[in-house]
Amino acid sequence: MIFLNGAVLVGLAAIAIPILIHLIQRRRAPAMDWGAMRFLRASLAARQRRTLLEELLLMTLRCLLVALLVTAAARPFAPSTSGTPWALVLPGMLTAAVCAAVGAVMRANRLLRWLLFGAAAALIALCMAATAAERLSQEGRWSHAAPGQDVAILVDGSLSMTVTTEGRTNFQRALDEARALVRACRPGDTVSIILAGPAPEEPVLSPTSDHELALSALDTLAPTGGAMEVLAAMDVAASALAHGHSPAKKIILITDGQDVGWDARSEGRWQFLESSLRQLPTAPQVVCRMLPLPAEYINAAACDLTFSRAVVGTDRPVRIDVKVWNSGTAPVGPLPVELQVDGSESGRTQVSAIQPGAAETVRFEYRFETPGPHVVSARLVGRDDLPGDDVAVRVLDVADRLPVLLIDGAPSARPLESAASLVELAMAPAADRAGQLIEPTVVPITDVAAVTDFSPYRLVVLANVPQLPSAAAGALALFVRRGGGLLIALGDRTDRAFYNEWRTPDGLPLVPATLTELRRVPRDPARISIETFSHPALALVAGPQHSDVASARVDAYWRIEAGAPDASVRVGARLDSGDPFLVERKVGRGFVLMTTASLGRRDSNLPALKCFVPLVHELAYYLAAPTAPNANVKPGEPVTCYLPSAFPAPAGQVEVLTPSNVRRPAQVSTEGNSRFVRYAATGEPGLYRVTAAPETAPSPEGVTGAGEVPFVVLREPEESRLSPLADEDLERAHKYVAIFRARTTDEMTAAFLGEIPGQELWKQLAACALLVALAEIAAAAWITVRRGSHSAESVRFSVEAADPERLRDSLRQRTSPSAESAQR
Q: How far is it, in rounded angstroms, from Cα 600 to Cα 425?
């Protein structure tokens, strides 16, 4: 705590005024003994104690009144971050006034009186010293001697800033406060404007002293949606401040304080930000202005949209699951949910009432008629406080075919004798393969050396293959690293040494585990333990009520050892003996799956079960998924869009239409016979379109027109939950970056201008002084009435008392015997 008019505190000496008046009024009067004195001495002792208490009360109130008036005139100021709290300084000064008052009244005990006077002086001296030290500390922190300062203003553009309270959104309030800061800039101040969202955008990145340019940039800002990445935004702010020339630097973050995006528990990222800020010539002051979030709100969010298969074709319907989450504080529903495919309504259902914090999933079934990219969206039909999360959008690339290469390690002239033939039949069970998604090609092991390029395939299956030529093994490892899938079905012809020594181009193991021995148990076959199914590709056959996988008997299987713990390896299923049945390794962008038992009928009865066909299909879809174009990316993640051969791209230049219908240029690149566009400005969640027709009006939402390639930037589901940042999380971040939390606009403006942020307390002290004055008046009146000194008593003498003769006659009559008998 400090005093803005500290010189006025000299007026505390006025506390001596009521004390001096009291001492003057207490001058001892001359003592005159008279006859009745002995009857009054007993009552005087009792009245003296009462009089002392009354004097203590009056003197305390009067000294407090003087102290409050003087302290209020000194304009006490409580800084927002104070080392000396006002709750210690102000009570200390008022206690000093009370000590002085009590010392003035305690005339009987001279030692106690001077001890109280000394305590009052010491308290005032300590309080003055503490406020002086506080002023020096605050001025050293906030004031700067440089003629100007470099300021980076970060405006939170997340989805939560679009909530409307009292007729306005927090984003509008943030823009108003940012404009006020720019207008308050001095001529030497430079300003950078950064829109903080999932990926920061910099309308004015380089510090500029053109304040009108900064104001114009603020007028163009709009919420990006999604969650604000605080660390990424501050890192961009640090880069902007590095281009400034003033030693005084500040970062002003205007946000609603939602906890999503702060990542307060990631100590490594905060340490990295701390190191970035330390590289600046002077450490910047970070001021965080937190706008209030609504305490109660109604919101239902379409937080997820998933498909039942990783690879979808035109051969069969696909199940579409839509997750609806009530992130508000009140129940919602029932709500209609509408499914749209390429802008046309394809289904509608209703989700039941959802309690706060709960979620429900609704399901649709849809069959795509044409291959290629399709825009699938689910929309909640209704109104709530956060409409930006009522739609979930995904781009699904429907495959026309899924080419699979089957390498048969044990070819046979007899039909369905080898494992490869059984897998081929499971992948394409119909004789006429037209219209089927999976397109298998079987190559015997003797002809595998002729296969020099695996890129035309999305999945390669090694069915009981002993070993591969070195060239094929190297090409296949490279194929997996680039996103291809590899399924290894071990068998009795497997060469243990080859698989254990198979390495990727960078020398890492390719096979998920080390093969130890082939175990044959025909008399006591092993069972596949359905309870151990944890791999996502086994979800469809994991339910015992609709799957007969528990009936599978395994007569021969390979025992394996996982070796040292590896995060890229996991066991997806086991046998009842505890040995692994399905194990996976992630290699680059692709996956290697290995079954320890053969998929042929000689080693198990699995091919004869109903679950075999869906099992093979699910494994194929899972392994082929990484090769599919990823058209649904996270905010800030670059996306690569492959252009179809018929896509027009004049002069290698195309445009990207953002969710807010802003056109941005992009460059077409070529790789072999493929053309693609890499786009990195993916900060705004929603649907994007790569288009080569800038003069064409944008298509309606969700519609994929000719000459367009869509992709989606996903939204963070937690952004729908309006939960404020906890104080302990802010303190955790404060260990690395000193963040001042401005709770009011005045505090933010003061910190921005180099003044000490906080609030004055003189109004509260003036109100207390008024109350003390009223209390003193009431106490004085009460004491006057109690003592009876408010009125003068008159003494009246009778006529008899005035005439001595008549007085004597009256006394004789009253004391005569006849008068006594008459009275009896």
A: 12
